[in-house]
Amino acid sequence: MPELPEMETYRLMLSERLAGAQIIGTEVTREQSVHMTAEQFDQALIGRTIWFVERRGKHLLFHLDNGKRLLLHLMLGGWMFFGTDEERPDRTVQVTIKFTSGNLYFIGLRLGYLKMMSVKDVDTELAKLGLDPFDKRLTLERFIGRFAKKRGNIKAALVDQHVIAGIGNCYADEIAFAAGLRPDAKIPTIEQATWERLYEAMHRVLMEGQARGGYMDDPFTSGDALTGGYNGHMKVYDRAGEPCPQCGTPIEQIEISSRKAFLCPNCQKEQ
């Protein structure tokens, strides 16, 4: 599932291509993905201009010139491609938004969605999201405070979008590794110095993931050399059996709260 670095990469590339672009047509093959009929979706979007694209956690918001928003959540298996009909991947497309410069294809939206919403409805829908990791209001003290009432493990809390918005399975494991903290560490046992390492590791790992284009392999455009660049730089996630890049100990896969988690049993000893 795309996480903060992947969605921020999408936001930057979409903004570069679509800010100020007018929509000239749409095509919907799965109406459940847009929560309205294909005809209603087409009528609502043709002639509209995208002013800019905003990210909130794992969501993207396309701001339209009539004050409406298109709220996107790709969820598991969803991704986007921008280009011509000849360039697009040979995959099932659920939604297409057309521009004079190319088409934006939404692929794999079986669980994800693209909903037309008012500002008020968006605010209601996203009201329970936690602060973004890069929100200036998220100081170290407030970061620690977000976990104050939690009694479970740190990975489950890191991926809880009500605590911090944007972190999922991949980056939770990478952040825990960078902080030298086991992902199954119980929150009440974590000491101040470890919280400080975790807070710094969160920013460092997410910034590197974003700078390298995230870990998803599917390119956004033909010739896209950025998307997926972080995949070869992950230290533990999906690396079971491979040597730890710091000490050489084989990476272990464990299960935490019905989720897979990856760690180095030698480098991550903090409880």
TrEMBL record:
Its EC number is 4.2.99.18. This is Formamidopyrimidine-DNA glycosylase. InterPro entries: FPG_cat, FPG_N, H2TH_FPG, Ribosomal_uS13-like_H2TH, Znf_DNA_glyclase/AP_lyase, Znf_FPG/IleRS. It catalyses: 2'-deoxyribonucleotide-(2'-deoxyribose 5'-phosphate)-2'-deoxyribonucleotide-DNA = a 3'-end 2'-deoxyribonucleotide-(2,3-dehydro-2,3-deoxyribose 5'-phosphate)-DNA + a 5'-end 5'-phospho-2'-deoxyribonucleoside-DNA + H(+). Its cofactor is Zn(2+). One of its GO terms (biological process) is base-excision repair. Keywords: DNA damage, DNA repair, DNA-binding, Glycosidase, Hydrolase, Lyase, Metal-binding, Multifunctional enzyme, Zinc, Zinc-finger. GO terms for molecular function: class I DNA-(apurinic or apyrimidinic site) endonuclease activity; damaged DNA binding; double-stranded DNA binding; oxidized purine nucleobase lesion DNA N-glycosylase activity; oxidized pyrimidine nucleobase lesion DNA N-glycosylase activity; zinc ion binding. It comes from Paenibacillus radicis.
